[in-house]
Amino acid sequence: MSRVVRVFLAYLRAKIGVMLQYRGEILLWSIWGIINPAVLYAMWSAAASGNENQSIAGLDRGGFAAYYFVMMIVGHLTGAWDVYHLGYLIRSGQLSPMLLRPVLPIWETLADNLSYKITTLMFVVPMWALFAWLVTPRFETSLWQVGMGFIAVLLGAGLNYMLCHTAALLAFWATKLDAMGEIYFGLCMFLGGRFAPMNALPGPILAIAEYLPFRWMFAFPTELLIGKIASMNEALIGVVIQSVWLVGVVILYRLMWSVAVKRYTAVSG
């Protein structure tokens, strides 16, 4: 384990150095990460203001401001994109030297993931502050909800990363996974609460979302951090569900990896 930690930290230092060479590009990525929730906030807050009771799904204008402000942060911290990236590594042959190293390639791609999140903080933190200043979010959060929310964010980040990476293993059987990537991110948007709060979804769709992992990666941590989950018991149940999903996906990944790597053939490189 100590060897894995040393190798991972070396990867992380190297990846951060690489990321800092592309400051203009990561600025553009950071702006895109802000635009989507900002536009959705404008849309849903305008719709709520047009209602007779000035709210939708239990959120008024200030509630939507808090929801999408926190979703910006949660979306950044839990983001993953290996469903695209692993396919590229296979097609280009760049996975070949990674397979010769003494640790699994997932540790290097995890370092990639964390280095992006760390280096973009210099851009996204001022943007988050500006958004909060402009829309004045209203929170109803107590200290225990903040603490549970941080735990939920960590579990959501791990779950999204592992699920995305596990889905990406299909690239060992298919040349490109662009369509799979679009489906995956579409499910994250609509069933994960990123497009609309969960209570705004139609009843049948909400019922389905409860049994899928997407809500637990994004909406659940956000709801905790804005104070919409009022019961400690409900929060603990949610954290347990996240943990069960995470353990299950890790086991699925290990099973799939052992089969998938035997099929590896680089397209080029």
Write up this protein.
It is a single chain. The protein is mostly helical. The protein has one domain. Helix content is 73%, strand content 0%. It contains 13 helices and no strands. It has helices at 2-19, 23-49, 61-78, 82-92, 95-99, 105-119, 121-135, 143-168, 178-191, 203-210, 214-217, 219-225, 232-260. Helix 2 runs parallel beside helix 7 (121-135). It is globular. The two termini are 31 Å apart. The mean pLDDT is 90.
Summarize the structure.
The chain has 269 residues and is mostly helical. It has helices spanning 2-19, 23-49, 61-78, 82-92, 95-99, 105-119, 121-135, 143-168, 178-191, 203-210, 214-217, 219-225, 232-260.
Overview features:
269 residues, mainly alpha, 13 helices
- Content of β-strand: under 5%
Number of strands: 0
What average pLDDT do the residues reach? 90
Secondary structural class: mainly alpha
How many discrete domains?
A: 1
How far from one another are the termini? 31 Å
Main sheet makeup: none
User: Number of DSSP helices?
Assistant: 13
The low-confidence parts are none
Supply Rg.
19 Å
The best one-word shape is: globular
SSE topology string: HHHHHHHHHHHHH
Helix-residue proportion: over 70%
